[in-house]
Amino acid sequence: MSFVEEARWFQAPPAQDPSAPVAPGHVTLVGAGPGDPELLTVRALRALQGARMVLYDHLVSREVLQYVDPAAELVYVGKQSSQHTLPQESIIDLMLRLARSGRSLVRLKGGDCFIFGRGGEEVLALAEHGIPYDVVPGITAAQAAGACAGIALTHREHAGTLVLATGHLCGRDEVALDWQALARPRQTLVIYMGIATLALICRELQAHGLPGGTPAALVERASLAQQRCVTGTLAGLPALAQQHDVRAPALIVIGEVVALQPQILRGMAVPAQAG
Ligand code: SAH
């Protein structure tokens, strides 16, 4: 497997001789799922095995990358919330340059590309520049956290709505989450990228009417061998996170459905996990 260093792919093929136009390559956006390669779709697996070049993000697990053809070029384009290996615009620019030079590639992203994955921005850019593409869905982290941690996200006696929200920018003035909507009863709320702003999230939800005693969980590295889940109440969640040193990638799950977890886990055989 050849790992391509950033520096090298910044020297991506220059524009070809304009007198010899090249047909653009095809870009396949693939959702890699939450980490356990067993949770790749068959289509995603085929795309990985057939790819000659793969641009992948921070959240794509090592276990998943093992399914890429060893002869393919693997390009890490990073992206941790605080530490962007490449800004999003540069990732898009690189993809466009490679495709325009005739290279077909797989753009591999954690979970599902269109759920907090900025896949929307990437396909819009491809569409605008006439680059052919397709999108392979992936299992999003919320689904994995539900199934792997024993949280029935929409158990109908407890939740009629499932909301996926991002906590990424919620501490900044320019992005105000609709706290009123997030604090509704009979709803399960799953918050992505919320660990850094957990205290603020819990405070705002309570200020907007969600009882502090609402069952809540933090699910770290869902589906992987290192998966951890801690449960408590909305009010107690920040202390719990500190006590257990919960770190990204992790989800916050809030709602009455969390209270069913012990019953659900009791009957669940230990799942085979990625190794
Ligand atoms: N497109 C991805 C989400 C990307 S945003 C998806 O559909 O899952 C990144 C955030 O997703 C992380 O900060 C974390 O909140 C969540 N996340 C991704 N993988 C996760 C995992 N295995 N376990 C828990 N949370 C995860």
TrEMBL record:
Pathway: Cofactor biosynthesis; adenosylcobalamin biosynthesis; precorrin-2 from uroporphyrinogen III: step 1/1; Porphyrin-containing compound metabolism; siroheme biosynthesis; precorrin-2 from uroporphyrinogen III: step 1/1. Gene3D superfamilies: Cobalt-precorrin-4 Transmethylase, Domain 1 (3.40.1010.10), Methyltransferase, Cobalt-precorrin-4 Transmethylase, Domain 2 (3.30.950.10). Its EC number is 2.1.1.107. CDD domains: SUMT. Keywords: Cobalamin biosynthesis, Methyltransferase, Porphyrin biosynthesis, S-adenosyl-L-methionine, Transferase. It holds the Pfam family TP_methylase. The keyword Transport does not apply. NCBIfam families: cobA_cysG_Cterm, PRK06136.1. Belongs to the precorrin methyltransferase family. This is uroporphyrinogen-III C-methyltransferase.
